[in-house]
Amino acid sequence: MASQLPTSETVARYEVNNSIYASGYTSAGLGAPPGDNVAVVTCMDARLDTYRSLGLDLGKAHVIRNAGGVITNDVIRSLALSQLELGTTEVLVIHHTKCGLAGLDEGAVLDRIAAKAGQRPSWRIHAFADVVEDTRQSVEVLRSNPFLLHTDRIVGYVHNVDTGKIEAI
Asked: Which CATH number fits domain 30-168: 1.20.140.150, 3.40.50.300, 3.40.1050.10, 3.40.640.10?
């Protein structure tokens, strides 16, 4: 499948990298259910390497990422399907130090988006002041959600971006 639009040098490099990756691809037999029956909700921050941080191999866990690792309706949808259809029974919520949402002025960001887009988004940014408290709240939101089948093994962690260590919350 060829690209329809010209690509940047970065994207072109990614395409070459994918060709190299695909030439040695050995994971065609993996099934969709994760081997460890675990789902991880974490931030999209480029400093987080969830697979290496937790020692995960491909096919071992579902990893759901968004800005801030926020528990949105889409995250709940993904977790509900992960549990009901694909057998996960545990959830790790991993937030991190020095997150871009920490201390962010949510109103100002929404105003900037509205100024550029011509309308204010209907969604929230979910800025927070304290990463530990935000992680606790995220875990509680999941534990109390009626759409999740397995709420007894939901745990929270804060990943320290300076040391790579996770701390249980």
From this structure: 3.40.1050.10
